[in-house]
Amino acid sequence: QVQLVESGGGSVQPGDSLRLSCAASGRSIRRYSMAWFRQAPGKEREFVAGIPYSGVGMTYADSVKGRFTISGDNAQNTVYLQMNSLKPEDTAVYYCHVNYRTMDYWGQGTQVTVSS
């Protein structure tokens, strides 16, 4: 059993940066695949960024490629999402997701609002 808690969201202006954190507890997620998803009001949840269990070969949605970076800190048992050059269309609730074999775990989300 893994519990995930996201933090670091907030209200920022276009062009600003935010760093989201996803703190895991219960078990080490060192060998888990990790990902961030987001969901805007009235829209379906979409994939943002992911890293496989091997730790090699991060993937990103085309809309965030070059601006966002996903990473993990084994010592802190935490997944991060560095978001730069934020745009209004990045506004959404961001969710942390980890997977191990057939087990999937989700956080409760953190709000990111980008507006001028």
Walk me through what this model shows.
There is one protein chain. The protein has 116 residues and is mainly β. Helix content is 0%, strand content 53%. The protein is built from no helices and 11 strands. It has strands spanning 3-7, 10-12, 18-25, 33-39, 46-51, 59-60, 68-73, 78-83, 92-100, 103-106, 110-114. The strands form 2 sheets. Strands 2, 4, 5, 6, 9, 10 and 11 form a 7-stranded mixed β-sheet that branches. The protein has a 4-stranded antiparallel β-sheet with strand order 1-3-8-7, with no helix packed on it. A hairpin with a 6-residue loop joins strand 4 and strand 5. 28% of the residues are buried. The model has no long low-confidence stretch (mean pLDDT 96).
Highlighted features:
116 residues, mainly beta, seven-stranded mixed beta sheet, four-stranded antiparallel beta sheet
Helices, strands, pairings?
Blueprint: E1 3-7, E2 10-12, E3 18-25, E4 33-39, E5 46-51, E6 59-60, E7 68-73, E8 78-83, E9 92-100, E10 103-106, E11 110-114
Parallel strand pairs: 2-11
Antiparallel strand pairs: 1-3, 3-8, 4-5, 4-9, 5-6, 7-8, 9-10, 9-11
Please count the beta strands (DSSP E, at least 2 residues each): 11
Unreliable parts: none
The secondary structure category is mainly beta
What's the overall geometry? globular
* Radius of gyration based on Cα positions: 13 Å
The count of helical stretches stands at 0
Terminal-residue CA separation? 40 Å
Helix content: under 10%
Main sheet makeup: 7 strands, mixed
Give the DSSP E fraction (strand runs of 2 or more residues).
over 45%
Q: What is the averaged pLDDT score?
A: 96
Give the helices and strands as they follow along the chain. Answer: EEEEEEEEEEE
